[in-house]
Amino acid sequence: MILSFSALFGAVERQDMETARMMLDSNGLDVNRVNDDDLTVLDIAIMSNHVPMAKMLLSHGAKENPQCESILTPLADPFSYLWRPFNAKYSRRVDHPLTLSKHGQTDKQFRAKWLNHMDYRLKLMRRMKSGYDHAQCPEPPTNVQLSVSSSSSLLVHFNEPNHHNGAVVTRYKVEWSCFEDFSVIAGEQVIDDPRCLQYEIPDLVQGNCYYVRVSAWNVKGFGDPCPSCPVSATPSSWREVSGLPPRCEGKLNLLDGVFAGLQEIKTKEGVEKSNQNGVSPMPPRKSTVRKSIKNLFSSAPKFQKTLKRGVYLACLLCSEDRILVTNEDIMPIIEVDESYSSASLNSDFHWLMKISCNWEDVKSLRREIDKSTSAGVMPFRSKLLQACSQLQSVLGVQDLGQLHHSPIRDSDGSVVLIAVNYIKDPKVVTSTHVKWVSLGKVQRRVSSTVEQSESPLAPESLLSAVPELLSYARLSTFSLNRGLYLGYLKLKSSVDLIRIMVPEALPNVLPHIKIRDCPNISKEEWQWFRNLTLNEMRCPPTPAQSDFQSLLTSACSNLLEHLGISEDEGVSHRLYDVEVIELSEDVSFLLLLPPVEGVCSVPGHQEDTPAQRALQCLSLPVQVFEMIHMSTYQREHLHRFCRASCALETDAHLAQQAQREAFSSEEVSVAKQRVDKLNSLQQTLDEAWKGLRWTLDIIAYARDKTLRGGLPLSILFAPPPSPTDSPSISRKEATTSANDVASSTCSDCGYHSDISSLDSQRDGAAEEAAPEEIWFRACRQPGILRVYAAYETGLARGTSVKLHVTPKTTSREVVNLVVQQLNKAVLCRGLQAPVYGVDELRDFCLVAVIGARERVLRDEYQPLQLQNPWTKGRLYVRLQANLLAAIEHGHVTTV
Can you give the residue ranges of the Fibronectin type-III domain (predicted)? Predict the structure, then answer.
């Protein structure tokens, strides 16, 4: 190790990058060890001005020696500084000039070698001193970006300086203040790891404005700071706009309270029964197993070798590349019920999924259920728990794992429920009735066995589904990286279930695409989002809002393309605008919803696009999706809910049975009180669970035909202009070439003003025909309309509005949008001009004008359906009574 350490110093001193890289990659060296001069390898690389070497060392965790600056002081006379060690060693050999050193060298040879070494060190130190003298403080970091990460923190990102000025940057300093001139520093943080180019500023005051700057450090000290962009930000959250509390807030205490209340009822009931019998309550006696020679000859478990009509429970345990099978090389399968008669397993399957969150409660729940003597679901659930208990006992594992998302069935009526679990230590399974077998070996054996098997659900055939079962169990536990995502909701209905579309690669979340790394949406961003939804844009968006719009628009386009949804279909989709779905502190979702009519596919309709089929999406029942989703992102909430729900459901069933069997009035009264208490606990539990279940709220919102809420993508892609007019243009500019007019119009957002009068347009109709045609064509791309105002608005003459519409948008909707937008422009500018109310909108109509002809479009007509030659003209909104507003003369024809 000492030789490797010296060799690393030698490679750095010689500036041998390849040797140094090889040693850093192959040896576990301490890169921060100091040499005889109290210098680390990074100190040498920095002061030698070898930036690539320094960066490579930094990437391997190298750090500077804090005493480096004090060491450099004696280097003003490096020769005398370096000669002292030599004099000390040489003086010890003066009395014995002919003695041999420990390496067999005479003193003369040693002296020559030492002089060469000192000469080398002297040159190295001179080079380091020269590098240190010529180095300067680094330039400021570049691209310093500031964003709001939560209601009490800000996140700053930055890049390295363009120039390190002779010495590599090894640390950064982030400062924040409530004053723009930083006269009072609210806090600072030095980042010692130069690879970390971001910092989250914690513990800030919500609502305060903070200014942030970042500076870089090298051996010469800190350079000039660089202010962030934007220069300031305010810690905030979208909840300040919506006023909605977090879904998980207080839910753990609520769930614990329900379970504690249930235990209190049980304890009180036990005390009352003991008092009635005249026996003091005794603590539960610990069960003991009487050991005898019979235990050595216990019967083998009844694993199923053949499957007939009935319900079975199987367990798939995996450890690395091995799975657990019986001695007959089949999956461990226990019979549950051979005479199960219910038409659907959905409710019992979902109940078993809740049991799988708390396998340790199997025995206690079974004891409670066995007290029931009534028919219904309890006998079958008792058999389910018995099968679970048998598997736990035989395998020696309490946690059987997660249930596969759906039972496996065949045409003969056999149903297999499969639990899958990954075992870290295979030694925990000590049963002699099972063994660990390589997965590859099992698959090779199965490939030949399946062809000979008559039943598709033969135990040997089930092993062929092992890769799929293991893949689902593994992928359903993965969580997304930190960030804000855009998800897509798509439902499929069947006879008894509503299913939700999820990707096979990550079945615990909706199909999604990442918007950005910061999961928080600030108050400023959400206010813009809500104003856009409510059509209340009163001022231009801020830089932060514009950036958010750009990211969101890009994410929507990419997600639609990823799902194979065309642009024409995409503009009819909408964004969920009630809340941001916060899966955890690090993962948040915005949701993209199809039109109300397309949210849910009915049986018999295949609406999956080729892209969706290529993505290999699954359709999971909503309850199953919620279980695996919350098992990943709210695991503790789910486990406590399942524990309370299973116990409460069992006790409620027993209480109702006791109420039915009660004879005396006293028994009836006691039973009724117990049922009422349990119903109250059930109501509390349902409220807590409803608050956690965002999925059902989204589904109800998306399918509500009366609400039809959300932000349409047509508005997001082409938002309404802020109520300001663009500057007027001259007549010369109005008669520019067709290409110039087309390009300026397409890039124009908002209102367009043209000072040329209608009379001059009519007089010069021939000259301006070409520009008019291109004006209309340029803006008549699919989904785009430019509509001019032909009535008294109080705004500049020739004002127009550009709209992004769908093929189903009607003329009446276009008229209403144009009049309302121009009303807002008048109000915001404080003009003395008429403002038209909702009851006056029916007085306006939409007309198409080309040359000297005009066509009035019916209210239900869809403007994008216009055909030639009308596509070469312009669209106007005018009062129905003013026939000559859009054109002075012409024939009026109803389309």
Answer: 140-237
